[in-house]
Every structure is written in C-alpha cells, then in structure tokens.
Automatic annotation (TrEMBL):
The gene is nth. Binds 1 [4Fe-4S] cluster. Pfam families: HHH (PF00633), HhH-GPD (PF00730). [4Fe-4S] cluster binds at C184, C191, C194, C200. This is Endonuclease III. GO terms for molecular function: 4 iron, 4 sulfur cluster binding; class I DNA-(apurinic or apyrimidinic site) endonuclease activity; DNA binding; metal ion binding; oxidized pyrimidine nucleobase lesion DNA N-glycosylase activity. It comes from Kosmotoga pacifica. Its cofactor is [4Fe-4S] cluster. It catalyses: 2'-deoxyribonucleotide-(2'-deoxyribose 5'-phosphate)-2'-deoxyribonucleotide-DNA = a 3'-end 2'-deoxyribonucleotide-(2,3-dehydro-2,3-deoxyribose 5'-phosphate)-DNA + a 5'-end 5'-phospho-2'-deoxyribonucleoside-DNA + H(+). It is an enzyme of class 4 (lyase). Keywords: 4Fe-4S, DNA damage, DNA repair, DNA-binding, Endonuclease, Glycosidase, Hydrolase, Iron, Iron-sulfur, Lyase, Metal-binding, Nuclease.
Length: 211
DNA sequence: AAAACGGGGGC
DNA sequence: GCCCCAGTTTT
C-alpha cells in the first residue's frame, strides 16, 4: 500500500474480508437483518432459515401472530420484540406497500424496528443502492484508523459519506463486520494480523489514539 | 441520556 | 459467571 488514503485502505480491507450476500430478496434480507440486530450472525442464520421454511412470504407472516414465531426466532434473542415487529412489518407491507419492501430510506424508516443501519443494509444488499450501514464495527474501526473523530454512529455515517467513494459504501459494510469480528475486535484487537496496521492510528500511536 | 429487550458464545 | 453481539424504541 503506497499511501494511507481512506479509499485505498478501505479497498484493502474489502479484499481481505469479502462478504458476499447470497440472499438478495428484500423481504428476507429485511427480516434476517432485524433478527441479527445486537446478535451474532451464527445465532440468527438458523432462526432465519427455519422462519422462512415455515413462512416464506409477507402474506403468510401477516396472517400469523407474534406468538407463532416465538420458538422459531428465540435463538436470535429479544424474540418477543423481534417477532412482534416482523409480523407488524409484514402487515404493513401487505396493507400499504403492495406487498413489497419500499426502496426509499424514508419509507423504510417508517417500519417498526427499522433504523438507519437496518434500512441501509436493505438498500445496499437488496437494491444495490449505495448506502453506508454504520454499526458498532464501522464506528469503532473508523475511529481507530483515524478516519473520523466521532462519538455516535450517525456522525460517523455523515463523515464517511464524504470520505469514501460511493462504490465502496455497500462492500465496506459487510467487510468491516468480518474484519471487526476476526481482527479489529472491540477489546483485544489482533493488530499483528491486521493488513492495514501501518495505516492505523491505534497501532501507530496507541497512547493517543481514540478507543 | 439511559433503560429495556435476550439467547448464545467466548473467555 | 460475566460481557459482548450487522440496534431500535421507549422512558
């Protein structure tokens, strides 16, 4: 790596930690993303699989009650909340959105349980629209690298849209999660294995760097 | 700004 | 046993 320009560092991270989404169906992406909120992916994959095996369309979930979903989504945690929101979303899609997940951020945000992170994941994964999903990983790593000095994910999102090329917004989402889970961990980051450590403020200046 | 929701896995 | 996890909503 010749320079430590953010776009170049981001491309290196994306190359080392690819994360392709095989599932692109908007409804399934939306539901599985809600299930994965504050929960590791490994725990939610089985829940998503079993849920879609039993209820494959918005209509079928709209006709169910939250209690019907409890046992299916329980491994994802916060299951009462998530089951209630998934059923409520399905009903909304059927009643007001012609049975389809909307493609506009403003409309997605009206759905219960859908905030900026979830909405932007759906936009980028299902619709191919450039969108940054700034979760705890993206927030933490961006600050460690020295790309931003922010205190909230929303601030980080605003800064990153100015810092990173649009074509990186989608790919960086998943790659940062993988990178953050395997190397740039919250507590004890494995800086020795990090492919971009020579561009990282935390590695170069551990005393002064932000957490 | 803080609490609440929550089962599963790492250490 | 304790802490964290592709957050969001409510108090």
């Amino acid at each position: 790596m010749k320079r430590c320009e953010p776009n170049e560092v981001a491309r290196t991270i994306i190359e080392h930690f690819p994360r392709e989404h095989h599932e692109k169906d908007p409804f399934k992406v939306l539901v599985s993303t809600i299930l994965s909120q504050r929960t590791r992916d490994e725990n939610t994959e089985l829940a998503s699989k079993r849920l879609f095996d039993r209820y494959s369309s918005p209509v079928s979930i709209a006709n169910a009650s939250p209690e019907d979903l409890y046992d299916l989504v329980k491994p994802a945690g916060m299951y009462k909340q998530k089951a209630g929101r998934i059923v409520a979303i399905a009903k909304l899609l059927v009643e007001r959105y012609d049975n389809k997940v909307p493609m506009e951020l403003s409309e997605l945000l009206k759905l219960p349980g859908v905030g900026r992170k979830t909405a932007n994941i759906v936009l980028s994964v299902s619709f191919g629209i450039p969108a940054l999903a700034v979760d705890t990983h993206v927030h933490r790593i961006s600050n460690r690298l020295g790309w931003v000095k922010t205190r909230t994910p929303d601030e980080t999102e605003h800064e990153l849209t100015k810092l990173l090329d649009e074509d990186l917004w989608g790919p960086i989402n998943g790659s940062m999660v993988e990178f953050g889970r395997r190397i740039c961990k919250p507590l004890k980051p494995l800086c020795g294995k990090c492919p971009v450590k020579e561009c990282c403020k935390l590695f170069l200046f551990p005393e002064t760097a932000e957490r």
